[in-house]
Amino acid sequence: MIRSAMPRLALTLLAAAALAGCVTTGTNKTATTGAAAGGTSVDANPQMERCDAPFGTIAVDDGRAADWYGQFGSETHVTTIEPLLRLAVQQSNCFVITSIGNLRTDSRLSRITDIQRNSGEYRAGSKQQKGQRVAADYYLEPQIIINNDSVGSVGGAIGGLFGGAAGVIAGGLQSKVSVVTLSLYDIRSAVQISAAEGSATATNFGAALGALGGSAGGALGGFSRTPEGKATVAAFMDAYNSMVVALRNYKAQDVKGGLGRGGTLQVK
């Protein structure tokens, strides 16, 4: 009985892995791939929207102070989404990224700057002086609106194919959706320049792996979280792509009399 069940179990897990592939572009990759250096990108997602020239400098919020950050990390085991956002922003060539916005990075760079400038231990001519930092023109804020909400079971077809124990495992597979937003602000005026929504779906393996029990479920536990985390990253890429398209066709809003002067919806 054990021997006959193993091929079915193996086929079920292979089918489950195939379902997870809808979120990624390759093994262990997310929707953001490759590298960036200046305005050059390497192995970027071919669906990434790009700009001919940057609109300005930008600060990207690292999300650590957001309400969604802690729960999202504990559920998906994704430690941070900001580096992938930064990669996508630089690959798009739409903005030049500053360290401002990432609390840890900015704090560390400030400490290094202070030591190199004031310790007296560094060579003359190192040019670590005041007035060299680049200010950010814009601020990008990510928000998770719906975090891996279940949108229905996707394991019925697999269960019908293999039956038995394999059917029990497959029956636990669920399709989950992540919905996110990105908001872009002009720092000097604090006016919102752009906003975009993005979404993506992935297969959740949590309930399915529970049927394996004990050590088997623990060994494959990454499958229960990784697809959901990758779906959220893909949702942010979806939102950013939409934002880039809107920004390439940007037209400033004009209020008669000027912004912040009382508006045109007068109160009698």
Automatic annotation (TrEMBL):
Signal peptide: 1-20
Domain of life where this protein originates: Bacteria
Sorted UniProt keywords: Signal
UniProt protein name: Peptidoglycan-binding protein
Annotated source species: Thauera sinica
